[in-house]
């Protein structure tokens, strides 16, 4: 199973739509959004693909965002997201809550931990956990998202040009 990881879209609808197209074209069956969606209008670009969201520090209008997520059949996860897919334990957060990512990373309970907030793509391993920031689709050069193959463990950083 392949999954897409996106963060920090900051209402850049065209860029987010292009990222979703790239991820779908490369076989992503599910997308995880690590927060800083910003507007309810942006959520619509994820219609048609199961998408799981957490909020970031720029996601102010929770009521409108929650309604938009529900309207596309997406799923909102409150403090942090957690799912098991293809036998892998996956967690994701925005990364703005001081110490939250590091605490989850040290638990050694997850195969993958995704986060955003810094707008800087990076990955490292802590114990069994691959920690991944897919980068950002706003205020980043280059703008990036990630594709993760849960079967092979391969992670591909994808440059997005709207």
Overview features:
single chain, 162 residues, alpha/beta, Purple Acid Phosphatase, chain A, domain 2, 6-stranded mixed sheet, 5-stranded mixed sheet, globular
Task: Give the helices and strands, then pairings.
Elements: E1 2-6, H1 13-25, E2 28-33, H2 40-43, E3 51-53, H3 62-71, E4 75-76, E5 81-85, E6 88-92, H4 100-106, E7 112-114, E8 122-126, E9 129-133, E10 144-149, E11 155-159
Parallel strand pairs: 1-2, 2-3, 3-4, 6-7, 7-9
Antiparallel strand pairs: 1-10, 5-6, 8-9, 10-11
**Main beta-sheet strand count, sense and barrel state:** 6 strands, mixed
* Poorly predicted regions: none
In CATH, the homologous superfamily goes by the name Metallo-dependent phosphatases
Structural category is alpha/beta
H and E order: EHEHEHEEEHEEEEE
Strand line-up across the major sheet: 4-3-2-1-10-11
Over the alpha carbons, how many angstroms does the gyration radius reach? 14 Å
Distance between the termini: 26 Å
Q: Give the number of helices.
A: 4
The CATH class designation is: Alpha Beta
What's the CATH architecture? 4-Layer Sandwich
Can you give the mean pLDDT? Answer: 97
Net shape: globular
What's the CATH topology label?
Purple Acid Phosphatase, chain A, domain 2
Strand composition percent = 25-35%
**Total tally of structural domains:** 1
What portion of residues is helical? 10-25%
Strand count = 11
What does this structure look like?
This protein is of the alpha/beta class and 162 residues long. The protein has a single domain (2-159), classed as Purple Acid Phosphatase, chain A, domain 2, CATH 3.60.21. It is built from four helices and eleven strands; from the N terminus they run E-H-E-H-E-H-E-E-E-H-E-E-E-E-E. It has helices spanning 13-25, 40-43, 62-71, 100-106; strands at residues 2-6, 28-33, 51-53, 75-76, 81-85, 88-92, 112-114, 122-126, 129-133, 144-149, 155-159. The strands form two sheets. The protein has a six-stranded mixed beta sheet with strand order 4-3-2-1-10-11, with helices on one face. A five-stranded mixed beta sheet has the order 5-6-7-9-8, covered by helices on one side. The longest helix has 13 residues, at 13-25. The radius of gyration is 14 Å and the shape is globular. The model has no long low-confidence stretch (mean pLDDT 97).
């Amino acid at each position: 199973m392949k999954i897409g990881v996106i963060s920090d879209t900051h209402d850049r609808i065209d860029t987010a739509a292009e990222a979703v197209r790239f991820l779908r074209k490369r076989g992503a069956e599910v997308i995880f959004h690590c927060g800083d969606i910003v507007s309810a209008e942006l959520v619509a670009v994820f219609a048609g693909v199961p998408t799981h969201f957490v909020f970031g520090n720029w996601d102010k209008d929770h009521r409108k965002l929650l309604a938009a997520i529900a309207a596309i059949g997406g799923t909102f996860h409150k403090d942090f997201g957690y799912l098991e897919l293809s036998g892998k334990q996956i967690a994701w957060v925005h990364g703005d809550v001081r110490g939250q990512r590091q605490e989850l990373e040290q638990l050694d309970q997850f195969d993958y931990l995704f986060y955003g907030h810094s707008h800087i793509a990076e990955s490292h391993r802590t114990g069994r956990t691959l920690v991944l920031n897919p980068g950002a689709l706003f205020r980043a050069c280059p703008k990036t998202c990630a594709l993760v193959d849960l079967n092979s463990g391969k992670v591909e950083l994808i440059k997005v040009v709207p």
